[in-house]
Amino acid sequence: MSGINKVNFLLPNKLEPDKKTESKESKNVDFSELLKNAIKDVNNAQLQADEAVKKVLSGETKDIHETMIALQKADVSLKLMLEVRNKLIEAYQEIMRTQV
């Protein structure tokens, strides 16, 4: 029984302090900055997809596979952003309907 405790002492315990420090750092992120960064990421995905389509249409590249991946990433990220927006608007409307 004492041998098992020595093995457990060596493996998982070294990783736990790092996870705790990361969670403390992530709590200090401002929501508006998080939202702005998400919008920038969606915009960048849209721009990359546009560039990939332009390259295919102009004949610079024939890599349809990468173009389709860029288009799908842009599409999924935009749909996710719209869902987040809808949830935020729904939450705002729910708060406004609350009687004080």
TrEMBL record:
NCBIfam families: fliE. InterPro entries: FliE. It comes from the Bacteria. This is Flagellar hook-basal body complex protein FliE. Keywords: Bacterial flagellum, Cell projection, Cilium, Flagellum. HAMAP family: FliE (MF_00724). One of its GO terms (molecular function) is structural molecule activity. The keyword Transmembrane helix does not apply. One of its GO terms (biological process) is bacterial-type flagellum-dependent cell motility. Its main location: other. GO terms for cellular component: bacterial-type flagellum basal body. Pfam families: FliE. Belongs to the FliE family. It is found in: Bacterial flagellum basal body.
